Each structure stands twice: as structure tokens, then as C-alpha cells.
## 1
Amino acid sequence: MKAARGSTLIGPSSGDFGSSKPDELSAAASFAAKAAFATNEFNAAAAMANACFALVVLGASSLFCTHVARRIASRRTLRIVDDYSAWLATTQHLPKLYLHAEPGFFAPINDAHSSTWPNVTRHCVKGLHFCQEDDADTIGQHIARFVDDVHKSGGVPRSKL
């Protein structure tokens, strides 16, 4: 399947994970997104191998840290997470993919926060904590379709982010 290169999808420039600027993605997330497009074609295996980094791009780690690890996270980390979570709710032009896991260990928390995101595509998958292992084929199909749809729409110009 032909799809956009990772740099088209991830939009904002990659930055140090410690950056408090919400318009910068972590270097790890940037690398993971680009790895799926190393040959200029979407590689589902690479995308699935990097699914945990894709979750960072999509905000699931932000939601986890915000609600579950607040007592142990540093203030700096919490500020970064809060800024990023707030930024996701303001990015009308950035397409987002939310995969609801059923029964899903973090599903209620993630559902509540992702409901504030504009321009989000939602799908339900089977899984509890490691849903990328529980329903890998379905998740891969949803990611591939989402990436293809973003590519067909022309991607997201940096000026819109």
C-alpha cells in the first residue's frame, strides 16, 4: 500500500522528549513513525513493531501518565504531558487515530480524554493491557487504512499545526 512518508504524518518537528513545547514530538516517536515508511511505502510490520511509539504520538501515554502515574512522575514530566494533552485537543487539522480496546485496561480514562480531540477517527479492538498483541491484525488494518486516508487527503501542512 502506498502511503505518505512519516514526516508528512507526524507534522511537528521532532524535538527532545524533555521539551515542554507541545508542538514538538519526541525523537523516539518521530523515529517510529518514519520507520514505518523507510522505503516510501507503508510497512505494516514496522508500524506494528513501533505501535507503542505510535501511542505516544496519539496521546495514550499522555493519558496514562496524567491519570495513573501522577504521584510518581516529576513536575517537569507532568508539565510536558499536560501541555501535550492540551495541544491534542486544539489540533483541528491534525488527523488522529484512537483505538478503543475492549475491555481495555485504560479504556475509560483514554475514552474520556480522547473525546475532546477534534478530527479523530475511532475504532474498537479487542484487548486488555497489551492490545497490540491481542488484536494485532485488526490494529494493523486500522492503522494502514488511517495512514492511507491521511495520504489521500494530502497530509497535514506544517502551517496548519
Note: The first strand starts at residue 14 and ends at 15.
## 2
Amino acid sequence: MPEVLPSKNGDLNGRSEPTSTSSGSSPLITAGSFYDSFGEDIRDVLDLATWRIGADMSREYSRIEREVREAVVTESSFQTKVRAKVFPRLKARDNAPKNAGKHDADRKLIEKIHQEFLFAKGGIEACDGSIHIHDALPLTIYQMGISLVSYQGNQGTWCQRLFRRDLQEDGSDRIEEVIAALERRQQRGESDGMGGLAQKALLDYAERAILLQNSNACWRMGHGNPITYELLTGGDCLELMVEATNVLRQLIEGYQKFVFVGHEPKDRWLYTIAQALQPMEFAIVHTLDERLEHWLQQNRYAAEAKKVMWDDEEIWAYEWIPRVIREVASQVVVGLFRATPVALAQMFYAHVDHADYAAHMVLADSVLQEHRGCPMLLDLARNTCDSVFGDSLERITAAAYAAAGAPWRYVNHRSSRG
């Protein structure tokens, strides 16, 4: 193990993504780096004589079994080193949150949460959402569905549908109008920014707004990172950025008793730390502003000669994102937990002043699913959302197209296959 923790290129001290080369492109893969990664000479791999016949599965099973066994042994050995060398350094880092480090869960507190809080009325509610898209040439429909649940039952479902048409009937048949319509469709096919906005930013906003405004529980649980890239940037919509981050500020700075749970970390370095945790352990690694730090380099809204209100202060639009990261994201900690021996470790986000209790909350709910090791209440929220909305959009639109005299004309051929 190195004597110091990795640097800020996607490590314990900062960024969640690797830096690119100075030219902005990914580094070239050399024959040497290929061999280091796979233990194979690239020239041998390109030689079809070394490829095995597909029917020769017995040899492949043996090889896969050997590779998996060796990889598990090596990884387990490395996790022991992580526990010995890295865990003690988490709380000694510069700018580490006050509760940084690896912690053992308090079993009595877990039991108390089970008995007095998790299943009690008003204890905790979870929110999750889904989006379904009907995309056809005449019309695209975005259906966003949100559910709010507790162990006492469904607390509500909400739905929003956005209808997008490239063509609007204006009675004109001028060639300029026809060409303009074709150009709009070409631009939409190349870069559908409004589609991305509808699919992610609005859904993320609605989930957090419902948690804040419609939940009556003491604790609020959500899915993923509380400050997503789409929310922070507003999906390139200034008005959405301001409104969405104002909701985030109320939830994070004001309410504070929230916990968001992601799946296993995508960052390999963070995933390595997570997998080194034992059952009923959790770790506080860093604050969320460190994870979002590299987003500052994008200079979003730099061309906008417009000011927006931050409380009673008027600031330039390009100053908004850096301030959210500096003042709001810095109040959120990034943590890891493992609930059971057989499940993957998970990531969670909580307010720095309530992170310890938040970790116990997600552990208490996650031990109810030994094979998954993630909060069952979040799964309940997602399943409720799917059962309420599910394939309803396709059924409704199919009936509408039939009524319009075009039952199959705009149906994707793959979606019509059994």
C-alpha cells in the first residue's frame, strides 16, 4: 500500500471522475497497457488461431472458475490492507468531515429503530420516480411518475406528462416552413437537449420537491445523489437550475433529516473502500463538494448576462453553481455501508450533523433484505411507481392512435414484436 492516500484524480481527496489528457481526449491504449490490463499480448488476441471454438465450453468453464477464484483471493487480501492502511486515514485527511472514518453500527440503536421508528407512523417515508417515453414521429410524450411510501402504506403518487411536437398546424404550406420543420427534426435527432431535460432534471426535481413538501415523516429517504448534475445545471435551463437548487437548499440546509441511497459506487476507488467493510459497518469518507469539485470548471451560464437572487443577494448566473457546491454540497457527507455478508456495499448521502443516525437508519432497513442489502422502503417506492404507471402510457397512446386512424403507422417495429 502507498504511504499516502491517492491524489485528487478520483480518490479519497476529491474528484469522482478521472482527469482527461491535456488535449481533452482519452489516453491512447498501448500494447503494453493492454498486456498490463488483461495479461494477454494484443497480437495473440488478434490471431484467430488462438480463439476457442464456441462449443468447447468445458475448457471455458474451467478457465472462468480459475480466474474468478484467483481474483476473489487477491481482492480479499487487498481489502485486508485497505482496512489496515486506509480506514485509519479517513478521519485524518485535510477537510475531513467531523464524523469521518469507519464505524461499527450500534446494534441496540438498530433494534430501537426497528421497534420505535422504522415501522412507526411518521417515522420515515421514501420517494422514487420513473419515466416512460412514447417517442414517435408525430409526437413524443414524456410521462414522469413519482411515488411516496411508508411501511404504513402508499402516501401518494404524482404524474406529469409533457407533449412535444415538431409540427404545429398554422395553415401555411410555404416551402420555407417545410424546410424549417425538417431542420428542427434534424437538430433534434443530433442533440435532443430538451429530451434530456425532461427525462432527468425534471424527474430529479419532482422527487426532491415531493420529499420536501408532501412528506410528513420525520425522516425523508431518496434514491441516488441528492445533488445530481442535471439538477445543479438545470439541464441548461437557468430557471430550472434556480428553482431546483432552492428546493435542495430547503431540504439540505433547512430540514436536514434526509438520507439518499445509491447502489454500489461507480468510482473504483470508492467501491474498493466499500467492499472492505464488514457487515453492519459504515464509513464516512468525505463531503459532497469534493465529489462535485470538477464541475466548477465548466463555466456554465458564463455567457448569460443575467443576475439571479440568492436569498437577498443578487449574483451573476455563472456564480450560482460554484456557490451551491461551496455552501450547500459541503453540508452533505458521502458515506458507505454494508448491511449483510452476502450483499454488495452501498453508498449513502446525509447531512453532516445527522450522518451517524442516517447510517443506522439505512442499515436497519437494509438488513430486511439479506440478498440485496439496500433499503427495502426504497424498493417499495419503486415497485409502487412501476405498478401505478408501468406500461400505462403505451396502452393509452395505442388507443389514441387507433382512434386517430393510425393504429400501427407510427409504432416502432420492435415494440410491436411479441
Note: The radius of gyration is 25 Å.
## 3
Amino acid sequence: PLVVCDARDKNSTLDALIALTAHLITLAGDASS
């Protein structure tokens, strides 16, 4: 799913960054296992 960032809402932008980071960490974990 696409992450939609609303630049007017810093909280949703931060949530999107956290979700992206968690996704990348998950991918890295899957790749290393």
C-alpha cells in the first residue's frame, strides 16, 4: 500500500516515516535470515 503523507499534519508525516523505517527493518531482517 502507498503511504500518503499530509504535509499539513506533522504527526501523520512522522507516522509515515516510522512505518517506512519499520518496513525497511523488516525487509533487512528477512534478507539476513
Note: The mean pLDDT is 81.
